[in-house]
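Hey, I'm writing a tutorial for new members on how sequence and structure tokens pair up, and I'd like a real worked example in the thread rather than a made-up one. If someone can provide the structure for the chain below, I'll link this post from the tutorial.
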Amino acid sequence: MITIATYLNEAGAHIAMGLLKSKGISADVVADDGGGMRPSLVFFTGGYKVVVDEKDAERATEIIKAVDNK
């Protein structure tokens, strides 16, 4: 799995993941937030990461960039 985008809030990461899934790309959100018990940890551990399979990384990055730049 490759990280294609990082967000400081969980909602943004899940919206991006949903967008990718709607385009047929398998995606997940990963974060070290203490199992949801310490959401502030993500500010120190790199944020909420949207990850995809390596084979989908280029297409997924293009989709996310197109939306994030609007």
